[in-house]
Write a structure and sequence with these properties.
- This protein has a two-stranded antiparallel ribbon with strand order 1-2.
- The protein is mainly α.
- It has a single domain, classed as Growth Hormone, Chain: A.
- Helix 2 packs across helix 9.
Length: about 475
């Protein structure tokens, strides 16, 4: 009788696959991955510390702190829209550096905040840094020469997961060493985005990215859906996605038809009319609301509902990201998703199970299990979304496509924290967690009514 496969073996195999992806890349691409990891680790620590810091040190209510988090999210969206309007493709690296510097400055401000006003200023700077850095890094990785775009983007999401796995562990260690001092922890992690600046500079030796025709990248803010996919002849009408037929590229720079099935056809005036972009955005929105809840109120939930101290709560957050890392590592081996819309439905089901367990459970073990379940869709959704966008977007349009995607999905961080904070104040943490099911189910229904992408998606393609 054959022996059963040890439960840890698939996880180890997935992690080995992920390590192979990260170690077999050019040094310039590894530098971009390292920049993303340093930035994301610091950003996550700041985000998960904001609400506990406000409650413990400044004695602020959950509704007020939800509003502070929402202001930071609004600043992130504004920075992303600014990036879409102002950035030039060959200057994306410069905007990445600005985002890293702003993020590095925000953590000491949060750490030293004596009042609500200073806390708001730090949260807004943190949001601005994220709004500039995340879409810029996605564009730099997507435009990096060599290999397949889907594999490079899978490596980026893997690097982000690795930083989110190790970051909470380091956070727990610093909290334990400093007697649960959130202020000293924030100061310690301010070093990471600052270190990202020289690491980013190490990636300069790669070939330059293809600039957007005409130089300036149009605004990333979404336009109203257009009644027709094909713009009229003549000068293109105004609007962020109102572009005429693609300009004729020299044969040597024309994107491969296999990567861009719509090559030669005019781009739709609205991104919502592009099946891949629409499915990617809805999938990210579907998971973004529960993720915002975990980041904003996860530590408080672990303390109040599950009886853990600050360091133990960060270990619970780390369990969430460990599972996410294993999931993304498995994707880097090369997975063909023949029905991406069905995959998003699976993400919705896992999210419903995890949120329900988190809302109704008790005891540290249940917390770890619930966060682990939620880590699976977290590991799936970003590689799926970035792959869908890259698959149907020509290189010259990738910067603004990523900026528009970030602007839409970051919009959740404007509305959700304030609403969630008000729900906590009115009905408590468990009611707030159960309320997360409403937007998840509504967006899942929208997925079922959305057009399917015209071809299977290859995530982490090793070719």
């Amino acid at each position: 009788m054959p022996l059963a496969t040890p439960p840890g073996r698939p996880v180890r195999r997935a992690l080995r696959s992920g390590v192979a992806v990260l170690t077999r890349q050019p040094l310039t691409l590894l530098a971009l991955y390292g920049t993303a990891a340093l930035f994301r680790a610091a950003q996550n620590v700041a985000q998960t510390s904001l609400v506990p810091l406000g409650e413990i040190d400044l004695h602020l209510r959950a509704a007020v702190l939800g509003g502070v988090f929402a202001l930071g999210g609004g600043t992130s969206v504004a920075a992303t829209v600014l990036l879409g309007r102002m950035a030039v493709a060959r200057h994306v690296r410069r905007w990445t550096a600005v985002g890293l510097a702003v993020t590095a400055a925000s953590l000491p401000i949060l750490a030293s905040a004596p009042s609500l006003g200073v806390l708001v200023a730090g949260a807004c700077l943190l949001g601005a840094g994220g709004g500039l850095t995340v879409p810029s890094l996605s564009t730099l990785v997507g435009q990096h020469p060599g290999g397949s775009t889907s594999r490079r983007l899978a490596g980026l999401t893997l690097a982000l997961s690795l930083s989110l796995t190790l970051g909470p562990l380091a956070d727990a260690a610093v909290l334990d060493a400093t007697g649960d001092s959130l202020r000293l922890t924030l100061l310690a992690f301010a070093v990471l985005p600052a270190l990202g600046l020289p690491v980013l500079a190490a990636s300069r030796r790669r070939a330059g990215a293809t600039p957007h025709p005409g130089g300036r990248i149009p605004a990333a803010s979404p336009a109203s859906p257009s009644p027709a996919d094909v713009p009229p002849a003549g000068p293109p009408p105004a609007g962020p996605w109102s572009v005429g037929p693609p300009p004729a590229d020299p044969p040597a720079t024309r994107p491969p038809p296999a990567l861009h099935p719509a090559q030669g056809a005019p781009l739709p005036r609205s991104p919502w009319r592009r099946p891949g972009w629409r499915l990617a955005t809805v999938a990210q929105l579907l998971y973004q609301v529960p993720f915002v809840a975990v980041v904003t109120f996860g530590v408080v939930t672990a303390e109040r509902l599950y009886g853990l101290h600050l360091a133990g709560a960060q270990l619970g957050i780390s369990a969430f990201f460990v599972v996410s890392l294993a999931t993304r590592s498995a994707l880097t081996a090369g997975v063909e998703i023949r029905r991406p819309r069905l995959a998003v439905g699976g993400i919705a089901c896992l999210t419903v199970i995890g949120v329900t367990l988190l809302a109704l459970g008790s005891g540290g073990a249940v917390l770890f299990v619930a966060l682990g379940i939620l880590g699976i869709p977290h590991g799936l959704v970003l590689p799926l979304a970035l792959g869908l966008i890259a698959e149907e977007t020509p290189p010259a349009e990738l910067a603004r496509a990523n900026a528009a995607f970030s602007a839409w999905t970051s919009g959740v961080t404007v509305v959700a924290p304030a609403v969630l904070g008000a729900l906590v104040a009115l009905a408590g943490l468990r009611a707030m967690l159960l309320a997360l099911l409403l937007p998840v189910l509504a967006l899942a229904a929208l997925v079922s009514a959305s057009p399917a992408p015209p071809r299977p998606l290859r995530v982490g393609d090793p070719r």
